[in-house]
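Example 731.
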Amino acid sequence: MKLHNLGTVLGFEVRRTLTKPSFWLTSLSIPLLMVVIFALMFWSNSSALSSVDTQRGEKQAFTYADSSGLVSPTVAAEMGGTRAADATAAAQAVREGRAEVHLDIPADPTREAVHIVAEDVGLIQSGQWHALARDLLERSASERIGDSRLVGVLTGVSTDAELWKDGHRSPGLAAAVVPGLFLVLLYMGVLMLGQQMLNITVEEKENRVTEMILTTLDPRVLIVGKVLAVFAVGIVQAMVLLVPAVLVGVLFPGLLGAATAGPGNTLPADEMPPLALGGEVLIDPVRIVLAALIFTGGFLMFTGLLVAIGSIMPTAKDAGSAFGAVILAMFLPLYTATMVINDPTSVVSEFLTWFPLTAPVTALLRNALGLLPVWQGVAVALVLFAFASALVWLGVRLFRQGSISYDKRLSIGKALRASRSRPGS
Amino acid sequence: MSDTTPVMEVRDFTMEFGDKRVVDGLGFEVRPGETFGLLGANGSGKTTTVRALLGIYTPTAGELLVHGRPFDPAGDYSLGYLPEERGLYRKEKVLDVMTYFGQLKGMERSRAALWSQHYLERVGLGDKGNAKLTTLSGGQQQKVQLGVTIMDNPSLLILDEPTKGFDPVNRRLLLDLVEAQRAAGATVVIITHQMDEVERLCDRVLLLKDGRAEAYGTVAEVQDSYGAGLVRLHFTGTLPEPRGWRPLTLERNYAEIELAEGTDAQALLRQLVDAGVTVRSFDAARTSMEQVFLKIYGHQPGEGAA
Ligand SMILES: Nc1ncnc2c1ncn2[C@@H]1O[C@H](COP(=O)(O)OP(=O)(O)O)[C@@H](O)[C@H]1O
Ligand SMILES: [Mg+2]
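Predicted structure in complex with adenosine-5'-diphosphate:
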């Protein structure tokens, strides 16, 4: 292979992609959209938080009627409640907008619901009325029991498990985060670069450039150069995605956390439950290395497959439908994920783990959850690498033979017979 | 490589597509510095031969050599190939595409860009360097394509129906450019249906029919072998018995005579003089390539079954 041409191909391909305004428009539209969504979330979140803050500061005035006799008048008074002399009138006052909220506690609150009549303050904010009723009953009960821990036990206990397997501490879900990221990476890569990969071998054909190309340079150089160019463009695209996110994270540290908490969360940030990402992330080097291997193998397999498809199909349109089928097959295991997780050694799971098309996603999923023995992970990666090399080899041969079948779909058998008899190849 | 090594050699070349034999035991060579015409009706296997020569098709049998070796796309050739199916990266800028191909042919980037700009100015597209190829007219795109072909003045030019789809002005331009390359010492292989081009440009020709060489040699040799030609004669006296010739028109003092194969004009003249005919004018013309084509294929060049 003449390597100076590899640099030429790479340079031309990268330059022409990066100098297209459409590339930047599509690449930038995603982070831009993200910024808009984050800003919206932040705005609605902070308004939610501030309204919660004001609630905490000032007591919420309310009226209540108590048929159960469970409500402690002292607690109610502390919370801003007034016992209604006439329950119907109090409810009516709310309905007419003269009061904000009235609670009707039934004789047996464990069997009947507390009836709340309250002002509509929005779908999400109206949740506070339910919290108010629960708070009132819980605090009254705790006063009567006299031991707030007992009340706590009744209202909910948080638990924390330490799992062991074969004498080793199991890392649990926290260790799935980093290997799981490779699954996301694969998904993003396939989605964002797939079309460009497909175009690698279709474009010359569609534009009738192949004969010029085939007589000027080794087709392997062209294909490898173009694949590298797509990778390079992918990295640029990832940067375009990541840099704004990192910048936002650094400049407005509260924004990302607040946004991930979701707009429905009415708790202030310091009381947020630990999220998967915000919580402890365990690093399991073996699983991460395995994930990286499977990811690389899977991505190369995908690349080889698209190069081969592009070599057979006469136009991008024809190749497009085949491309759709490939994507579907690759991400099919996500739909059967529960089955695979529940029974990782079933016949279906094993098939999905070893069949090259479904292997990357299945193996990455199993590996992330600790359901894939190390030797199997290595073997799957090796299978993928082998399959990828075979596909690229096939793709180059098909390109050589098929690139001048401008209109017809190439017969693979014919192409291979022809290339076998070719001297020096 | 001595000067006498053929630029191209084809020996016993056979090409089959499925059961169909398209080329059958073809052999010819192209010598350095000559302009070689590859002629034949549509579908006679011309493009197939060129593609096999350039390694795009794998021959079923036979040997095809360029500069004494099988063609290697990564090799150091100084080759300009204008394929029959042509196109360029349509969505890119003219200058970018030309520079890219220049680089692939081994030119420095800056030199390729400079060469391209000069060329564009020469063919009247000086202001189109930064335009996308799609925005150019068909004729303008063909000029760019031709520029890519003759970039860096290749020593071997292979042109597959170069004037196909060209208007007369561009055709003239193209032939001038090819002629300039030829004059600078390039070997030119041209596939064409234009018999006047053949007569003007080519040193030697090969006529393909049904995948075989029907005629091969210098233009004159080929013309001679398809009827030595036509003689227009003004005379007084009586013509002798025809031997190796046949009068097409015979008037009192004028005749048009067709020479049979193997008879040349000299022999006719000798017969006439020996027979005591007074020859007042003797105008021998070769059979035109157009007539040769007609004789071989039974129809005009450029028409007929593909
Ligand atoms: N890739 C191919 N597959 C099948 N048949 C082909 C292929 N290329 C050319 N042919 C056939 O070979 C014959 C010669 O074609 P071609 O060399 O293009 O003729 P020409 O260039 O002399 O017009 C035609 O009958 C054509 O249909
Ligand atoms: Mg042809």
